[in-house]
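Chain X:
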Amino acid sequence: MLRDILNHAMAQMKDHLKLVTFNCRSVKSSINEVKQLCDSFDIIMIQEHWLLPHELSTLSAVHAEFMAVAKSAVNIERNILIGRPYGGTAILYRKDIANSITAVDSLDPRVCAVKIITNCRPVLFVCVYICLLILVMLNVLKITLLLVLISLLCMKTVMPFIA
């Protein structure tokens, strides 16, 4: 039964996925642009949504045909804003391919990832936000190692796509 459902979902998956990446600099002020992207693409990778952790669920309500996986760059554990109220990453994807998608926890608020099972192989989509200040402070090698670690943790063979 489950195998039939998965086979049906895979059969309905398109031969190709249309993907876009968008630095929205506040999803609240660019909501119309995000909705337009949802009308044209299957996967939307968003950087700088500027949402607080309790606001992340609003991304799944941006468009009726989409769901979202998101990370906030803001720490509010002590009821005080800690960290930049900027940043944040999200991956929005069509609900009709949701059965093929698994969220991958990166343990980093600047990195959001999903694994998509395709007809060919699993594909890891990674959305990363790195502001210029962080880029200067961080070693690019550390970021590369983080992405490789994510790949190794979520699957044996991976075709990564990094935005």
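Chain Y:
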Amino acid sequence: MVVGITFLVSGFAKLLLPPEEFIQVLRSYQVIPEVLFSPLTILLPGIELLSGSCLILGFFTRAASIVILIQLGSFIALMSVVIFSGIELKECGCFGSLGIQETPEQVIIRDAILLIMALVLFITNKHRYALDNLFDGSD
């Protein structure tokens, strides 16, 4: 539930940002190609919202956890590049304009914890109140 809520809040907060502000956040990383800015401003919030919602509802749980695992791995890799490149990052932009400011190191720690949680969700597969149970066919 924590992983799904985190991604739902993060995606929604990014949607509230004007695209120009989100592009400025992406630009501050200094390692993301500019050609990806516009697609990321559209796709990233949507993917976060959809995967977070699916995880909360327990709908397509395994697929949602795979998508979230890929996102978390990408975010950890990006923050690692930022740290090792010596890039001064004032705001990660992870939660849009909610005012939650994190250093790249804090983002890596948070995302590593969320990654472990998402991995457990992927491995366990069965969850008592998941909507997936309605379509399972077994009792």
